[in-house]
Design goal:
Layout lengths: L3 H20 L10 H10 L1 H35 L1 H16 L2 H12 L3 H25 L3 H9 L4 H38 L5 H10 L3 H29 L7
Length: 246
């Protein structure tokens, strides 16, 4: 039933889109019907897979770099309050600046290759990871903390044995958010300057009025985001199975 509702809603929207395009004879260079988008998505799968693999690599690289930054940063901010006071304004500022403003600068600094796209994805991804993990640390039950102190655990021992397991569900919640928005950074970077990738393909197709290819690229991007979100859910159930227990 949980899956039936979104599937039914999606089917209704697609049907309305298809009927509307046919009934009003909407030109395909303005809005192609979903049937044509699906045909393009499958018939041009070699091109889409080639560019999609580049975008996926950018997303996964940005995700790995964001995790490598978020884990020690959240731990340091939790263990040392002065670090949180010092870094919190910069964390907020990193998200307040529009990503379109950063993309051209990153392309100038790091070039048209994969590096600028990975950095852009990292900028967007690391914030929900850091904030969620920090909130997970802070949400730990004080009674458990007191118990660990009575047992003689050090600050770092308590972090490893208590705070980390406690915060894992929060981390995976942040990971789900991160993988959902990860495509934004990579694609915007490709829009500004790239030689391949789904964002690059979208810009080139739009210039040629191949709107069906634009929508096909969007479909592939959505599929990438959904698969990554699904994998994050699997990891959450595998490594934090206690989060759903009462």
């Amino acid at each position: 039933m949980k899956r039936l509702l979104p599937l039914s809603l999606g089917a209704c929207l697609i049907l309305f889109w298809e009927i509307g395009c046919r009934a009003w004879s909407v030109p395909t260079y303005i809005l192609p019907p979903p049937s044509e988008v699906l045909v393009t998505a499958f018939s041009q799968y070699r091109t889409l897979a080639h560019h999609g693999s580049v975008t996926l690599l950018e997303i996964l690289s940005g995700l790995a770099l964001a995790i490598a930054i978020a884990l020690p940063m959240a731990s340091a901010m939790f263990l040392f309050p002065w670090v949180e006071r010092a870094l919190a304004p910069f964390l907020v500022a990193s998200q307040a600046v529009p990503v379109f403003a950063l993309a051209p600068v990153l392309v100038v600094w790091f070039g048209y290759g994969i590096e600028s796209k990975v950095i852009m994805a990292t900028v967007i991804i690391f914030f929900p990871l850091t904030v969620n993990l920090l909130e997970g640390f802070k949400s730990c039950d004080p009674r458990h903390v007191q118990l660990f102190r009575m047992m003689g655990y050090s600050k770092y021992g308590t972090l490893k044995k208590l705070f980390w397991p406690w915060a894992l569900p929060y981390f995976f919640a942040g990971l789900k958010v991160a993988v959902s928005v990860a495509t934004i950074g990579a694609v915007i970077g490709e829009w500004v300057g790239a030689q391949k990738g789904l964002g690059y393909l979208m810009i080139q197709s739009n210039a040629r009025l191949r709107i069906d290819m634009v929508f096909a690229a969007i479909l592939w991007l959505s599929a990438i985001g959904l698969v990554l979100w699904w994998l994050a859910g699997i990891m959450s159930r595998r490594y934090a199975p206690w989060k759903d227990r009462g």
